[in-house]
Design brief:
The structure holds 2 protein chains of 2 kinds. Chain A is mostly helical. Chain A has 2 domains: about 40 residues, no CATH class; about 140 residues, no CATH class. Chain A contains 10 helices and no strands. In chain A, helix 4 runs antiparallel to helix 9 and helix 7 runs antiparallel to helix 8. Chain A is globular, with a radius of gyration of 21 Å. The two termini of chain A are about 30 Å apart. Chain B is an all-alpha fold. Chain B is about 70% helix and about 0% strand. The radius of gyration of chain B is 21 Å and the shape is globular. The chains are: A mainly alpha, B mainly alpha. Chains A and B meet through helix 1, helix 2, helix 3, helix 4 and helix 7 of A and helix 1, helix 2, helix 6, helix 7 and helix 8 of B.
């Protein structure tokens, strides 16, 4: 079995195994498993609904920004700079959109892979950039929204520092491995 | 600087409308605003079921003492990353489970477990509404998370006829490891800057304490 195949098998087995382990451990410690489950699950609705205002704020603003064409404008402005450091101009929008929109980035990556081929440098770099970090603003809205945090302190800066590091590392590693 | 998100949000909206007007794309901007609002609710509603599932499982795990056990397992690392969290606190158990789910690419489990961890961290937060140091560090770990099997992107590559759809796995792991290290380090360094310092600890309110003790 290849390493990736093994990892995929772990992913498939992980959730049923964890649920079984927890329920079995609960039964061994004489926990009333059914009652406890229902009691915990009751909070699910509340948490999910609590994040709606935060999600609306972020997704609406990011959606409007993308639709306005501002990302293309920015790409035009800094494109020559970034191609000087070896980032193909086509991939720059992927890097810029990554912290803002996961589905938007995935769409761009699919498009680039279709046009340039998934095994081209552009296709591989775009795919690596997609996986190099999470969508910072989305995670921030969901995680802080669930506990009502509005004053986020240094969270945005730390998240963006991680994004930048991930994107630069993706470029360096891809140039090393795929050229 | 606590208002950073205010400025970013303001800038996003203002730039979107101004640039949209200049580009003659106001219709698209309007549509995007309503689409964003609808997507938010779709995401939240989609989360209700999995959220309930994992909060139910976590309640059993808590009562069986498993969460504390996990918390103890990552004590050496947790002491450095989350100095404000007591070593046996259930928050650490939830954090470990969230990170493990992220590593395995189990998005449906990762978010509910992460929100559970946030809720636990919030019980230690004296300034409600303001992020604690531990919360920012935890968020940093999540915004840059390593995934061992980036399943979505592999799927896209397979569907487009890639000859080696998984050859981006190693570079992705390397790049996201860099992102995680930098994000967590940045979180721990930035929390010391005057601009991000927490408000001075308010004196504990005697009536509230008395109410809690009774």
């Amino acid at each position: 079995m290849t390493p990736t195949g093994m990892l995929a098998a772990v992913s498939t087995w992980a959730i049923p195994t964890v649920i079984l382990l927890v329920v079995a451990a609960g039964a061994m410690r004489r926990v009333k498993v059914y009652e406890s489950f229902v009691e915990g699950a009751r909070e699910g609705f509340e948490v999910a609904v609590r994040i709606i205002p935060y999600l609306v704020a972020i997704l609406v603003a990011v959606g409007m920004l993308r639709a306005s064409g501002a990302v293309d404008l920015l790409v035009g402005a800094v494109g020559s700079l970034t191609s000087a450091i070896g980032l193909p101009a086509e991939v720059l929008p992927v890097a810029m959109l990554r912290p803002l929109s996961g589905s938007g980035t995935l769409g761009l990556v699919s498009e680039l892979s279709k046009v340039h081929g998934p095994d081209s440098f552009v296709g591989r770099l775009a795919a690596t950039m997609y996986g190099s970090t999470e969508t910072t603003f989305y995670v921030l809205a969901v995680y802080f929204g669930a506990v009502g945090i509005t004053r986020s302190r240094h969270a945005v800066l730390a998240g963006l520092a991680g994004d930048l590091a991930g994107l630069v590392a993706a470029l360096l590693v891809c140039r090393w491995l795929f050229t | 600087m606590n208002v950073m998100l205010n400025w970013i949000w303001l800038a996003l909206v203002v730039v979107a409308v101004v640039v949209g007007a200049a580009n003659g794309r106001m219709e698209a901007v309007t549509k995007a605003a309503f689409d964003g609002a609808r997507t938010s609710v779709d995401i939240a509603l989609g989360l209700i079921g999995v959220m309930a599932l994992w909060l139910g499982v976590m309640k059993i795990a808590e009562r069986a003492g498993l969460v504390e056990l996990l918390a103890r397992a990552i004590r050496p690392l947790a002491r450095r990353l989350f100095p404000g969290v007591p070593p046996d606190h259930p928050a650490l158990g939830a954090i470990l489970m969230n990170l493990a789910a992220n590593w395995l690419g189990l998005g449906n489990a990762a978010t509910p477990l992460g929100l559970k961890a946030m809720a636990e961290l919030d019980t230690l937060n004296p300034h409600k509404g303001t992020a604690s140091n531990a919360m920012v560090t935890f968020l940093a770990l999540n915004t840059s998370c390593i995934t061992l099997v980036p399943a979505t992107i592999i799927g896209v590559r397979v569907s487009l006829g890639s000859a080696a759809p998984t050859d981006i796995v190693a570079p992705t792991i390397l790049a996201s490891a860099c992102a995680t290290v930098v994000a967590a380090t940045a979180a721990r360094l930035l929390e010391r800057l005057p601009a991000f310092r927490l408000p001075a600890q308010a004196a504990p309110d005697p009536p509230a304490l008395a109410a809690e003790a009774s």
